[in-house]
Each structure stands twice: as C-alpha cells, then as structure tokens.
Amino acid sequence: MNHSFLPRWMSRLSGVICALALSAASAQGEAQKYDAASFPGFVVDEVVVPVPSEIFSVLDKLGEPNWKQELRGVKTPTTTDRYELSLIFGTVVAEGFVAVQAQDKKAVEDIGREVLNLAQSLGLTKAVRPHAQSILDAVEKNDWKAVRKEFDQTQATVRFEMERTRDIDHAQCVSLGGWLRGTASATSVVAKAYNADRAELLNQPMLVEHFSKSITGMSSEAKSNATVAAISKGLTTIRKAMDSQDGNITQEQVTTIRKTSEELLAQILKK
Amino acid sequence: MKLSLPRRLFLALAACAVAMCLPLVHATVDEAHDYAMQAATPFVEQGFTVREDYWNGEVENAQKLAVRHQLFKGNEYAFWLGTAVDDAELELAVYDVKGQPVHMELKSAKNYCSVRVNPPKTGTYTVVFSVKSKKEKGVTWALAYGYR
Q1: Count of CB atoms within 10 A of residue B14's CB?
Q2: Phi-psi domain of B123 (left: phi exceeds 0; alpha: psi -120 through 50; beta: other)
Q3: Contacts of A51 in chain B (CB under 8 A)
Q4: Of the candidates A80, A86, A185, B10, which lies 20 to 30 Å from A49 by C-alpha distance?
Q5: pTM of the entire structure?
C-alpha cells in the first residue's frame, strides 16, 4: 500500500501530463446492466471501510450538528491484550475524525498523543510517529483537511503494518473499532434530529456483514476474546436493525443501532 | 531439525528468488496506484478528499473484476483506476443494487481512467472494471476513490 498522496510520480507528472490527451465521454450510454449472478469476472473479496468523515460530511450538509457535543475524550483503559488494543486504536482514530468535525485543537492534540501511546503498546511506534507528528503540525496550522487525511493515513498505516506481519485479525479489529465509534457518533447525531435522509445513512448492511464474516474467519484465540465475542453478537443485533424494505431506517431502528454500538464501545473502553 | 547442506543451499536460493521477485511485483502495483493518484489530481483541486485505503492487485489480461462498496447519498464520489501497463484499454463502471449504471463522466488517459458517482441512495454499489492489453498476459491495477 502506498500511503503518500504525492509519491514519486509527482516528479514524472509534468512530462506525462503533456503527453496525455484526455478523452471524455458520457459512460451511461455505454454501460450495460450489471447482473451479479451472470458476472463473468471475479468479485474482489476485500472491503474498504469508509472513514467516519464520509458519513459526517453528509450530516453536515443536512444540518449543523454540534460536533463538540459528540466528543468523548480519549481516556483509554490499560490493557496488554492486542485484540483490545487494536479495537481501542480504531476507536481513538475515529474520535480524531469527530474532533476534526468539531475543529477542537485541544482534543485533536490529545488524540494525536494517545494514538502514539497506543502505537507504542502495539509495537508500531516507528510507523505511526510521523503521522502523529503530522497531525500535531497540521492542527497547529488549523489545516483541518490535512488532519483528516493524516487520521486516515494513520489507520491505513497501522492496518498495513499489521497485515504485513500476517496480523490480519488485529487489522480487522482496528477497522471494527473505528467503524463502531463512527457509527455511535453518527447515530447520536441522527437521533438528536431524526429525519429519513439522515437515518438513511445508517443503511450499511454490507459493512456489518463484512465485519461479521471477518470475525467468523478469525482465529479461535481471537474469537474467544470476550470483547470480540460481544462485538460478534452485537453486530447481529445491528444487522437486524438495518433491515429495511426501501432503505428507510425508522427512529426505533436508529435507537437500536445507537444503543448497541454504545454498549460495544463501553465494553471496548471498559466504561 | 538439522537440514543437509544442499537442502539449506536450495532453500537459501529459493528465498533469494522470492525476495528478488516480490519488490518487482510491488513496484508495478505501486505504480498502478501512482497512476490512479494522477487521475485523482484534478479531482483534489475540485475539493475531493482521497481515501488512503484502496484496492489493488495483478490479474490475467482483460479479466473483469468487481468490488462492492458502501456509498452515502449526499456525497459525490469519484473512482480512479490506474495500471502500470502502457498499452492499456481501461473499463470502469459503477452499478446500484439493481444492477443499473449510476456513474457519469468517464475520463480516460493512457494509464488511468475515472468516473464520478452521485449515489441516488445510501447503500452498496458495485464497481466493475478491467484492464485490457494487447501485449501483456498479466496486468496490474489499483482502484482508489474519493468523496466531497
């Protein structure tokens, strides 16, 4: 995985760009219907989990949530369990996205430091330190877009390092923790000012199924971890709460998703 | 367990061969991502945020691939497909849950292409793509996306 948005191609860009003639066409007319049952190719298994700011940006367009109210702070429990540390790491990075929405410098600085502490516990200081520093540098300049990008890169780097060392289960825990914190925050905002457009953002059955499948595929050691087991059970509840004929999510469904994700977060953060 | 000298020599050579091949594959896959990022450049100028996570790999020439991805109504998305193959013919399309195309503004260049999507609903979409070459048996690819 390449973590830098401006890698070595920048130096080649000017030469290449001159040599290229872009051709634009409306593709709607050319594309045929897609039928999964008769698709002649491969479906790539890998799922890219959206970052919380994707959903937050829509919530911003639909109203003006009080993001400061959604901040929880980063009082993380002491543990040496790598599954728990990975889940916590994911929640802290997601908390970073909330802090960026709130444009709270102090909160971002605290989160940046906590990210580094957790990386140390996970043995990933070397990989994470540059990102943590970039987060602090960007917040100093009030460059919120850069902070958001760094949080995304931090999570991607940690997952990449874990996957590189065949630490797939822990990488999944990072994603899972992040998604749960993002979902808790999104459901909190939606519940405060419910309407169908906001609630529709919680229509994410594919992601929940992906996480459930990930846990099913984990080692028996991972699956026997109390927190991972609780999350597995909680995901079943969340998945049921996302059932919808027309994509509409009712207020009651929002409450169930929120309550379940909050309970799982409390278990992760031992609150 | 103690291994004989010829066996140890064989394993050492095999390890060297693997070690020498791996960076080559990664280099070309990384290059495919670099091209996807070239496709992203004008979108970034228009306010798109590029996601750091992306899909990539190496497949048989012209092999059709699909990824399923969660999109949120209210955001505008762009997908960027890149390849290190120089004579590539690229295809990229996005479909809704009913299999209807939802992408627009397909733009192609030598090593990359892009589409935009305004998802009509929040949910799962399928991105279908392929890289076709007249010369290569295998092709590298990278698919990235961004939103605004």
Answers
A1: 10
A2: left
A3: 51
A4: A80
A5: 0.85
* Nearest CA distance, B131 vs chain A (angstrom): 12
Contact B29, B142 (CB under 8 A): yes
Take residue B96 and report the two structure tokens written for it. Answer: 């809704």
Q: How many CB atoms lie within 10 A of CB A164?
A: 11
Selection from A97, A106, A44 nearest residue A67 by Cα = A97
Cβ separation B75–A20 shorter than 8 A: no
Locus of tokens 């990075």:
A93
Q: Do A44 and B75 touch (CB under 8 A)?
A: no
Segment B128-142 mean pLDDT: 95
| Secondary structure letter of residue A36 according to DSSP | G
Q: What is the pLDDT of residue A183?
A: 98
Mutation test of the interface with chain A: which of B56, B59, B72, B111, choosing the one with the most A Cβ atoms within 10 A? Answer: B72
State the pLDDT at residue A31. 59
Ordered by where they begin, the domains of chain B are: 26-147 (2.60.120.380)
Residues B80 and B74: their CA atoms lie apart, in Å, by: 20
Residue A268 contacts residue A256 (beta carbons within 8 Å): no
Q: Between residues 45 and 64 of chain B, which touch chain A (CB distance below 8 Å)? A: 49-57, 59, 63-64
Beta bridge partner(s), residue B82: B112, B142
- The pLDDT tens digits of the residues spanning B83-103 come to 999 999 999 999 999 999 999
Distances (CA, A) of B106 to A37, A97, B26, B36, B88: 25, 31, 28, 14, 15
Selecting from B53, B68, B95 the residue whose C-beta is nearest the C-beta of A206 gives B68
**Residue contact B53–A148, C-beta within 8 A:** no
Are A177 and A268 a contacting pair, CB within 8 Å?
Answer: yes
B75, B122, B128 ranked by CB distance to A34: nearest:
B128
- Exposure of A202 by Cβ count < 10 A (0-12 exposed, 13-18 middle, 19+ buried)? buried
CA A38 to chain centre: 32
Closest residue of chain A to B35, computed from CA coordinates? A9
The closest CB to that of B55, out of A16, A44, A54, belongs to A44
Helix axes A226-241, A251-268, angle to 10 degrees: 170
